Amino acid sequence: MLKRLPTVLVVDDEVRSQEALRRTLDEDFEVFTASGADEALAILEREWIQIVLTDQRMPGTSGVALLREVRERWPDAVRIIISGYTDSEDIIAGVNEAGIYQYLLKPWQPEQLLLTLRGAAELSRLQAENQRLAVDLKASAPVLAARAGERRGQLAQRYALDRLVRAPDSPMNALCAMVERLAALDIPVLLTGESGTGKELLARALHFDSPRAGEAFVVENCGALPDQLLESELFGHKRGAFTGAFEDRVGLFRQADGGTMLLDEIGETSAAFQVKLLRTLQEGEIRPLGSSRTQAVDVRVVAATNRDLEAEVRAGRFREDLYYRLAAFTLHVPPLRERPMDIALIAQSLADETGAALGRRFAPLSRELVACLTAWRWPGNVRELRNEVLRMAALADGDTLSAAHLSARVLRAAESEQEAALELIDGLQGDLKTRLDALEARILKEALIRLRWNKTRAAQELGLSRVGLRAKLARYGLERA
C-alpha cells in the first residue's frame, strides 16, 4: 500500500506564483491550487487538506481573513501565509487571530519553503496522533478505572488486618483491634517500635481500612535524606530552586492529596525541618522550594519511629508541638522476642511466600527448627527472620527447610538454651512434685521480668487467666519488689 503524501492547498491569485509553488512542492506533497478565497473554501469542503498556504494580498478576501475562517471551520489544518509586506497590521493581528503557524516573506527560497512545509506536515501528523490517542484514552477510561479499582481492592485485601500473621494469644491482637478502630477516625497516628516489627504494614492496614482507601498511600523515609532533598521530596520544588533543579517537581504531599502519607523514621529529622513540617500539619498547605505560593493539601499523616519521642522531647531534640501534632494516638508495636508465640507462624508464612516466589513448595517447619527459631531473641525482628528463611531456602536441597542451615548465631542460641535447661533441671532438688513446682515458679518469674511485670500479657503468653496467674503468684510468693 502506497503511503499518501501530505496534502497542501496553495492559494494565490497569480497563476505564475501558483505554478512556481507547485513545482517546488510537487515531489513531497499532494498539491491543490486555488485563485481566491471562495475557490479555496470549496476545495476544503471536498478534500482533506492538512496545510493551507496562502498569499496575503488577493482580490476580495485577504489571506489572513481566509485563514481566520479556516481556523474556525477546519481547526486541524496548519495555516501558513506568504507576503511581500513586512509591516502589514493584518498579518501581525492574524498571527494570533488566525493561528498562523508560519509567516514567509517574498521572495521565498525553495529550501526554506520546503523546510517550513515539512515541519507543518509533521505538526499535522502529531495533531492527528494526539486526537487518536485522546479518543483511545476516552474509550479505555472505564477499563482503566475498573483496573485501578481492582488494584485498590487487591491492595486492601493484601494489607487487611486479618491477614497479619499472629497467634490467637498474641499481643498483636489487641493492637490490630485498635488499628481497626482508628482507621475510621481521620486523626494522626504515631507508630513506635523497633525496626523490622511491621510498623509499615500496620500503617498500610490503617490506610486501606479507612475512607481514604481509594486514594494514594505514600511512604517517605525521613532519615535517609538531608534536609533540602527531604523538603524537595515532600513539598516539591520549582525549576532553579537549587543546584540541579532543572525542572519543576511535584512533592509527595501533592501526590498523596486525599490519601495517607507514612513519614518513617520521623525521629531522625532536624529541628529546621520539624518547623516546616509543623506548619504543613497546622495549616494544611505546602510551599514548594523556590515558590512564593502555597498549595492546599488534604493528607492523613501517619508517623513511625524506633526512638522514644517523649525522651527526645525532654532532651530538646524533638519539638514538643510537633510531637503532639503527630501523636494524636500512639500505638506501640512489640518486638518479636515479646511475642514468641508468633515466631513459628510468621516463619511458616515466610517459607510459603518464599517457596511461591521460587516455584517450590516447602514442607511444614519441623519441631527442631521451630525450637531453634524461638530460642533466638531476634534483634532485627521480622526482617531478620525473613533473612533466615531466605538463607534456608537457598541452601535447601529438597522441599524441607533445615535447622542446620541457620546462621551460626541462631544455632548457638538454641544450643545455649538447651544447656541452660539441662542445668536448670540438674539444679532442682526433691521429689517430682517439688521439682515441678520450682520449675513452674521460675517460668512464671522469668515471664514477668521479661514482660516488665505486665500480668495481663504474662497470663496471655502462659495460657492462664488473670485469676489463675494471681493464684500461682500468691502460691509461690512471687510479687514485684
Detailed description of the structure:
The protein is an alpha/beta fold. The protein has three domains: about 5-125, 3-Layer(aba) Sandwich (Rossmann fold); about 160-335, P-loop containing nucleotide triphosphate hydrolases (Rossmann fold); about 340-475, Helicase, Ruva Protein, domain 3 (Orthogonal Bundle), CATH 1.10.8.60. The chain contains 19 helices and twelve strands. The protein has helices at about 15-25, 35-45, 65-75, 90-95, 110-160, 170-185, 200-210, 225-235, 250-255, 270-285, 310-315, 320-325, 345-360, 365-375, 380-395, 410-425, 430-450, 455-460, 465-475, and strands at about 5-10, 30-35, 50-55, 80-85, 100-105, 190, 215-220, 260-265, 285, 295, 300-305, 330. Strand 9 and strand 10 (about 295) form a beta hairpin. Helix 3 packs parallel to helix 4 (about 90-95), helix 14 (about 365-375) packs across helix 16 and helix 18 (about 455-460) packs across helix 19 (about 465-475). It starts with 6 loop residues before the first strand and ends in a 5-residue tail after the last helix.
Task: Return the average pLDDT rounded to an integer.
Answer: 84
Percentage of residues in DSSP E strands? 5-15%
Could you describe the largest sheet, including whether it forms a barrel? 5 strands, parallel
CATH topology of the largest domain: Rossmann fold
Widest sheet: strand order? 2-1-3-4-5
Unreliable spans = 419-423
Number of strands: 12
Task: State the share of residues found in helices, binned by percent.
Answer: 40-55%
Global structural class: alpha/beta
CATH class of the largest domain: Alpha Beta
Tell me which CATH architecture of the largest domain applies here.
3-Layer(aba) Sandwich
Count of helices? 19
In CATH, the homologous superfamily of the largest domain goes by the name P-loop containing nucleotide triphosphate hydrolases
* Gross morphology: elongated
What's the number of domains? 3
How far apart are the termini? Answer: 96 Å
Specify Rg, calculated over alpha carbons: 37 Å
